[in-house]
Write a structure and sequence with these properties.
194 residues; alpha+beta; Alpha-Beta Plaits; 2 domains; 3-stranded antiparallel β-sheet; 5 helices; 10 strands; elongated; binds iron/sulfur cluster
Length: 194
């Protein structure tokens, strides 16, 4: 059984409870944060828990750490000394690039089709149509949030489009969502005006 150390930085925790949903045996809901059950505070807001766990438990512990959006949880195998999930973000081997894009020169039309996106201020919904042929709608998806719409289009309807087209869809959905929330006009491909 591997001996594992779990390290938890409670100050960083934003309390979204994703770790708890993944691993309810290690985490306890304490309102706007979680507690590491059985964890010892070794310095202010840093809690450590060590123990021998089965391979399945270790997998669950690591999954619980991975879903934390703010890297508040680290997991180390004390037998090998190896990090199973590193809490600190390292940048030593990072390539850094300044983003550049010229839409007039670099835009590529997706042969799979195109999206028509609009908002419905009355129902507070976003409507997305996909055309495989000019002006012939083959799919229409309506929803309230970007995530439910793109998950439906990509993972449930399994629409196959270019990767940059997926990114475009996400950007337009977020704009449409903000437009509905702020009560401003949404026009596909135009910037929002506040
Ligand atoms: S997933 Fe991270 S931020 Fe969310 S409750 Fe757990 S430790 Fe806190």
């Amino acid at each position: 059984m591997p001996k594992i150390r779990i390290e938890f930085d409670k100050a960083t925790c934003i309390g979204n409870k994703a770790c708890l949903a993944m691993d309810f045996k290690r985490w306890k809901d304490v309102g706007d944060k979680v507690d590491l059950i059985g964890g010892k505070e070794v310095q202010k807001d840093i809690f450590i828990l060590e123990g021998d766990y089965s391979e399945d438990e270790v997998e669950t512990i690591v999954e619980g750490a991975k879903v934390c959006p703010v890297n508040a949880i680290g997991v180390r195998n004390l037998g090998t000394g190896g990090e199973l999930f590193q809490r600190k973000i390292t940048t030593e081997n990072m390539k850094e690039v300044k983003a550049k894009y010229d839409d007039r020169k670099e835009f590529v039309l997706d042969p799979a089709g195109y999206f028509l996106i609009k908002t419905n201020p009355k129902s507070k919904e976003i409507e997305v149509a996909f055309c495989r042929e000019p002006n012939i709608v083959s799919l229409k998806v309506t929803g309230e949030t970007p995530i439910e719409i793109y998950q439906t289009i990509i993972n449930k309807e399994k629409l196959k489009i270019r990767n940059d087209h997926y990114a475009y869809l996400g950007r337009e959905l977020e704009k449409a969502y903000i437009a509905l929330k702020k009560g401003v006009k949404y026009i596909q491909d135009d910037e929002l005006e506040f």
